[in-house]
Amino acid sequence: MFHTFQSSVALRSPDQTGSDGGAKPARASGSRRISTSNACVECRRRKIRCDGTQPCGQCQWYQHPEACSYSKPAQRVVPSRKLVDKLQGNIEQRDTVLQRLFPGKGLETLVSLPREELLNLALSAPAATSPSSTTGAQPVQTTSPNSEGTETSLEALEQAPDQNPEWDEVRRYQDKIQNISDDVNGLSMSVDRLASYVGISSITTALKVIVKAAPVAKPYIYHEQFETAQPSRANSPPPQVDDDPLALPSLEEGRELLNAYYERVHQFFPMVDMDRVWNTFTSGDRTDSPWLALLNIIFALGSLASGTSNDDNHLIYFQRSRQHLSLESFGSGNMEVIQALGIMSGYYMHYLNRPNEAHGLMGGTLRMATALGLHREYNDSATSKANVWMGWNGNSMPQESGELDHAEVRRRTWWSLFCLDAWASTTTGRPSLGRWSPAVTVQGPGKVPIPNRGSNSCISPTTPQDQSQLRILPLIHNTEFCKICTQVQDRLATTPLPKLDEVQELDSTLVRWYEDLPTILSTNQPCPEFLRIPRSVMKWRYQNLRIVLHRPFLLSAALRRTPFSTLSSEEKMAVGKCRIVAGKTIEDISNECTEDLISGWNAVWFMFQATMVPIVGLFCDSSNPDDVEKWQGQIDTAIKFLDRMIKWSVAAKKSRDFIIKLSEAHKNAAEREANQ
């Protein structure tokens, strides 16, 4: 009876009222109140007291004993001081790494970027110097191919030219000038015998690495070498040349040629005073050789810029210009002779694919310039003929009125020669021979002392408005770029594999130079038509120099057949930069190059340089299928672009055919390997 009474009381509803005014479920006599820190899920939901049993009394009363369940209580973890310090240290280390990879970038700006953009941003940012880099592990080059024997050393790829080489350039001038085979641009396809010396930074070295690491490519290169040895367009007759060295085009034709030169070429090296050239040409009162040599080479480039790769009319003016130049010209000390030789050897002859002849002539031209003292700044030169400069306001370059000031012509001539020589020789692997040194004190182009501010107080058009100021803007910034070029050239000519910290420092300097360019030169915003091609070429040349700077590490890894995954972290950074910049270059050139001969000529050369990077990857590091697919896509983009540029570059077809052959060689080798 006692137990039955207790059971009925225990099942009474907690809401049931009695004589005691709201009695709750009774407990057994003598038992203490149950206290639990963990109520069941249903009691928590109803927010009522739970007795902690299974099933609890409340669930039984509500007739849902199956719903009675308990969640495992979360155990509170009190971190130790040691753990807190460790976590804080990890956060600081991650922040340090992020700042090294993305200096000046906040985490909130990076979190939404895709992987490819993060890689591109990290590899294009200036490298931060780590305090431990000088005291930590040995740099990667101590275990590089240079210390692993001659078979895997970049130095072993260097070779002396033949003792008595017959440069094809000489025969080309007598027979058919526009051949496209030479050692410097790599299109001779010669990897065993060279007619001239080219170093590690040349494109020929990349071809040697491909042949050494992947002998399957050798027959394809030799096949192309045989075809390239034949004169291009051998059946086309040479242009007819007027035997009269004093012959000139009509006034109307001359105007068109001068205008084409002024709009499409002059901005690259604005050393010539075009107002004076036009006035002298129209007056017709000068027939001396220095003047006619300069005028005809300007006509040649004007004809070149206004035509296509199939036009040979420019050769008429080139040959006329040469008739007014001889060995005696180097002793003339004439500014017009220096300008004519500079334009001819520094620019035009590279279109004719005669780089060795151009290299020799440019050396003599620079010696002439130093003999005239163009490399020095003089205290009285800035004030000579100052009356021809008018209207400066302290914020921009003086505006030209009539002919240029003599001192400014000297400055522009020196720095134009400086840039032309740097552009032509950076990828040859040859030393600069002192092109840039402390002895060169001449001020930069477009800088004129301001009255009452001292001789060293100069202004430069950082935000120019007038067209005359805009036309010299590329030379102003190319001058600084070519100083960096000279450092890179001499460093790579000294040793095939420079130290990584030197490479990072030079690369950081390059990136800062490009980021500091005026907006009109560094972006795709609207600009005058005469600046469109120069600024595109500036960008491609900047990208190409970054490729050349990091390419020795790519070639070193390829020569050792070392997969990317097994490289050291330093080598991965250098090789990764080379590959990413090359891929971006291929994409940019394909999208930005216009159908114009000056643009196409430059673009084809830089495209060929950049495409060698994914080709080396295909032959020497094809372990990652994703990388292989990406590289093949870049090569396909390059082939389509080169096919599109055949009309605008004499080297486009040969470059395209060569890349196609190498791509086929890789595909055939991959198929044979898969079938084994």
UniProtKB/TrEMBL annotation:
Residues 39-70 form the Zn(2)-C6 fungal-type domain. One of its GO terms (molecular function) is RNA polymerase II cis-regulatory region sequence-specific DNA binding. InterPro entries: Fungal_SecMet_Regulators, XnlR_reg_dom, Zn2-C6_fun-type_DNA-bd_sf, Zn2Cys6_DnaBD. It comes from the Eukaryota. One of its GO terms (biological process) is positive regulation of transcription from RNA polymerase II promoter by galactose. Residues 1-18, 136-153, 453-463 have a biased composition (Polar residues). Residues 1-31, 127-166, 444-463 are annotated as: Disordered. Pfam families: Fungal_trans, Zn_clus. PROSITE patterns: ZN2_CY6_FUNGAL_1 (PS00463), ZN2_CY6_FUNGAL_2 (PS50048). GO terms for cellular component: nucleus. This is Zn(2)-C6 fungal-type domain-containing protein.
